[in-house]
Each structure stands twice: as structure tokens, then as C-alpha cells.
Amino acid sequence: MSPSAEFVQKLPTDLGGASADRIDCRDHELQPWEKRCHALADVLDYHKILNTEEKRRGVEALGTELIGKLSYYERWVVAFANILFQKQILTPEELSIRMGNVAARHSREAAEQAL
Amino acid sequence: MTSAIAENKGPIVVMADGEAPRFQVGEGVTISVRFPIGHYRVPHYIRGKRAVVEAVIGPRALNNEEEGFGRNAGQKRHYYRVAIPLTDLWPGYAGSAADGLRIEVFENWLERKE
Amino acid sequence: MHSHDHTPITAPDGVPGYYEVMETAIRELLMERGLIRPGEIRRQLEVLDSRTPQLGAKVVARAWVDPEFRARLLQNGRTACEELGITFYDDTQLIVLENTDKVHNLIVCTLCSCYPRPVLGLPPDWYKQKPYRARAVREPRVVLAEFGTVIPDDVEIRVSDSTAIVRYLVLPLRPQGTENWTEEELASLVTRDAMIGVITVEPRERVLQ
User: Fold this and answer.
1) Which listed residue, of B12, B39, B53, C79, carries a Cα 20 to 30 Å from C27's Cα?
2) Smallest Cα distance from C77 to chain B, Å
3) What is the pTM of this model?
4) Cβ contact, residue pair A23, C131, below 8 Å
């Protein structure tokens, strides 16, 4: 069997029994956007627009590098985008345009508050 | 196909495929060995292991591996909570021989113990 | 693989980061399409905020003082919680795992982060990260020792790995010397980590109100 097959067969999130470090018990208070992200996942699941299991698969599909580099809710939101694209609910173009608008709006609001 | 038997009357209904649990509490089973790609909910560390059914989970539910691809329908089957000694999972396990794993497995991943 | 989910990085002036912008954009687009309604996210935030370890502590304290409730709880964790007004908005089932003199239970989700959210709220970071998920099923006694918990060799450790629709809650042993305590006093002893199973409930001096 090809030596690379194990990387295809084993999900990067299938961690039971892997060697790992000491547990780091530091926790963090969730930021408001992280809570909104969680609420969004639940609401999408209620509607079966994006069910919980699809979300899990979406996170798995990010692959080892992104899973390692992104935080928990960062992984969720990127997974949402990918799945919504696959389902043709959103397009990458639409999302990118809206993200640009949102970022610009935030910058304006921050500038106004600074005055 | 399993018939539900009424007391002293013989079969009175034909049950749908998957309606009756295939395995009972206390039964020995083996976790299947296969390697789906893309998504699965049976971790590698239990594949091929022998287990004992500790509970039949009700009500029946969808196949979560199929749900992962957006299938919100399909033939419902049972999940089973099964027990596997940690010494069977990990060579050289250093804890107590009585230590064990409990894990839920969907019916399509279990086979009768050979 | 090094996991990076420690404190999220935000710009020092509080300007939303890249992922917050993505979350906001997705939410707005879905609302504009009529796929989700504005009130739904707000409502779900309230649902989530209302779920904390205090709920689980109430369940545990009730089980400690009421043997019939305890029996119903062990028979069907979800319906017993519903008796106390704790609803299961996510359609999961609950199995309550009873610690005894002979058995100590521990819960984990090796594949992701399944956790009894309806009755405990959201899980701590460490529960969702690689070290716990990898090692809890492999060397539970060493993991427990890292939390300061030593389980004698003649006590069996059972590790429950959630992979499907069932969630777990550990029913810890009631500490010695609490025979006359009220349910509220008992509940105040029960922490989230004891209901995950990484620590036991320790007795402490009773603080009379």
C-alpha cells in the first residue's frame, strides 16, 4: 500500500491514542464573535442548512495544516464558508465582497469612535 | 427482516429493515475493519477490536457518517454502547486490567463476533 | 501537530479580526436571503448563555439527596434533567455515569468536542485540544494525575468516548461529612471538572448562610 495512503485514510482529527503533550488547562473567555459563531452553527443545524455532522466533516476537510493553525471557532467559520459554497447557497465572490464591506464598515466605525 | 411476535399468537407484524436491533445487551461483537475516506465516526483505534454490547441506544437514528455529507434522511438504525478493555486497545497498557472504554457505534460498523 | 487554540488574537484596538469579519458577513448574507432570521441568533445566544455547570450541579445534588430521582437519572439522563426544567435543544440523549467505590468515569470526545452542552454549557479549551483527546483513552490514570486526581488500582476507570447522539455526564461520589447539607450547599461543591470526571468532589468546610 502506498505510504501516503495513511494520510488519506486517517482524519487529522482522529486523535485517540496519538502521542501528545501535557494538558494545558488554560481556558479563555469566549469572544462575542465566537459565541455568535456557535449560535450560528446551532441555528443552521435546526434548519438543516448545515447540520452538526456536516460541520464536523467541514472542519476535518480543512486538513492538518489549517487545523493546526486556526483556533476552534476560526475552523468552524471557514468550514461554514466552504460548505455553503458547496451547497451553492453562497459564492466565494459574494462572500468576499461582503467581507470587504464589513471590514470597511468596522474601520469607519473605529475611526468615528476615535474622534 | 424480523417479525414482532405477540404473546401466544405468532408474528403479527413485519418490521422494517433496521427497526429491530440486530444486537442485544451482553452480546460479543467485532468492530468492522474498513477505511472510509472523507468522513467517519469510528476512530481508528477501535477498528477490528472485540467488544461487548453494554446498551442498545434508543430511539433509532440516522447514520451520522451519511449526515456528514448532508443526508438528513435514510434508514434509521440503532447505535450501541460497547465496552472494550483498555488492555485490548493498547499493548503494554500500564493501568488496571479492569480499565475500559465505552463508545457508541452505529449498527453498520458491528459484526457478530467470530 | 501543534495546536494553536489558545487565546485568540485580536487587534489591540478591538477592531474585528479576519474570522469575525467572515462570521459577520456569512450571517448577514444568510439573513438577507431569508435562510435565518435575526431573532434566531439572538435567541440561541440566550439559550447558550443559560447553560452553565450550575445546571449539572443541580442535577448531581438532587441525585445525591433523592434516591428515586437518582434511579430515574441513571435510567434516562435526558428525561430526568427535563424534570428539573433542563431541556435538550440539540436533540442529543444523555447517559449519566455513576461513580462508585469500584468505578470512576471520565468523558472525552476523541474525534471532535462532543460535550453535554445542554446541561454543562460550553466545554473548556483543554477538553477540545489534542493532549486531552489523544491521551484520555490511552492513559486515563496519567491524565487524571495531571489534574491532581489519583484513582486507586482497585477502582476501575471507564472512559466514555462520545461519537454519536449520546452525551455523557459523570455523577461524582458524594463527599463524606455532607449528610445534613441542603441541596444548594451540595450543588455548590460540584464543579464542571468533576462532572467531566477529571477531578472528584472534595469535602470542604460547610459555610452556613
Assistant:
1) B39
2) 12
3) 0.94
4) yes
Check residue C209 and give its pLDDT.
56
Closest CA to C127 of C108, C143, C145, C111: C108
Q: Which residues of B touch C (CB under 8 A)?
A: 41-43, 45, 55, 57, 61, 64, 79, 81, 86, 89-90, 94-96, 98-106
Tens of pLDDT, residue by residue over A86-103, are: 999 999 999 999 999 999
DSSP annotation of A57: H
- Which among B39, B43, B69 is the nearest to A16, CB-wise? B43
Considering the four listed CATH numbers 3.90.330.10, 3.40.50.2300, 3.90.78.10, 1.10.10.10, the one that applies to the domain covering C52-196 is 3.90.330.10
